[in-house]
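An instance as discussed:

___
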Amino acid sequence: MAIDQDRRRRDIAAITIDLIAREGLEAATIRRIAAEGGFSTTAITQYFVDKQELLVWAFQVLSSEGEQRFHEALRRDPSDVMGALLTMLPWCQANVRRWKAYLAFWDEAARNPELASLIAQSTNVGTDFLQQLLRSRARSQGDVAGAGQLLNAVIQGLAMQILVDRDNWGERKIRDTLEEAFAFALSRAKC
């Protein structure tokens, strides 16, 4: 039976992301990822030239997961702004996993220009999503770009706080903070 090449690459990325979220980027060696997946290192090197290529792919898959969750939330209910915004925060297990991995990638990006570029692109995509959301709710168009950047900064800062002080950030408090941040950003978008 032939192996679905794309499926195998995605499976390897999922294993890599899980490992990074649990133990950090240092733990994500080819040998360790292979062991986690129950296959040989050759099975990984067949799909990825080196660890850098694997990390880049894993980050792209991670970003794609976030984008899909955001769009799925809006498809389910286009009026549910908070539902879409919540996909960008570590308030549930799936998002905690994503954010722990994101933070590990961000740390590495300080020393790795290729990852830094990918993270900047991913951040721009997320900010574009926020700008579209603001634009769709603003009756007049003011500083939508600035409002989207502001909202993105609030979401990223809030995510960090939630990860390090989860006991102080219940779902209600997260929603209230998001609603207040969105309302403020929307007021900027209308000016």
The mean pLDDT is 93. Residues 25 and 105 are 7 Å apart (CA to CA). The two ends are 60 Å apart (CA to CA).
